[in-house]
């Protein structure tokens, strides 16, 4: 219920929707936010990421990392060692999602509890 607040204008709603759709377009898919969150903790090699992020194939991981790099969320640094080492790291831009990810995590926890409660009542 809205009290003492005016409804947003059509233009405000349209702009807000456009912004959300733009964000979802860039962060779409099952893995992008998980990979950003994972790489915020520390830089990792490809094999470390694949071992720790369960359920992602090498092909999908490579595609998602490339997309994240193209959109400025991660950097890919190649070290000319033998064998070549490639390290992936979250950028400062990726860290700008920290509050969004925190809110999304809290909402996910709340939703999971709501579903559990709903199942207990239905059982």
Automatic annotation (TrEMBL):
Entries under PROSITE patterns matching the protein: HTH_HXLR
Keyword Transcription: yes
Residues covered by the HTH hxlR-type domain: 13-116
Keywords: DNA-binding, Transcription, Transcription regulation
Name under which the protein is recorded: Helix-turn-helix transcriptional regulator
Cross-referenced Gene3D superfamilies: Winged helix-like DNA-binding domain superfamily/Winged helix DNA-binding domain
Keyword Manganese: no
UniProt GO molecular function: DNA binding
PANTHER family referenced in this protein's UniProt entry, alphabetically: TRANSCRIPTIONAL REGULATOR, MARR FAMILY
Entries under InterPro entries matching the protein: HTH_HxlR (IPR002577), WH-like_DNA-bd_sf (IPR036388), WH_DNA-bd_sf (IPR036390)
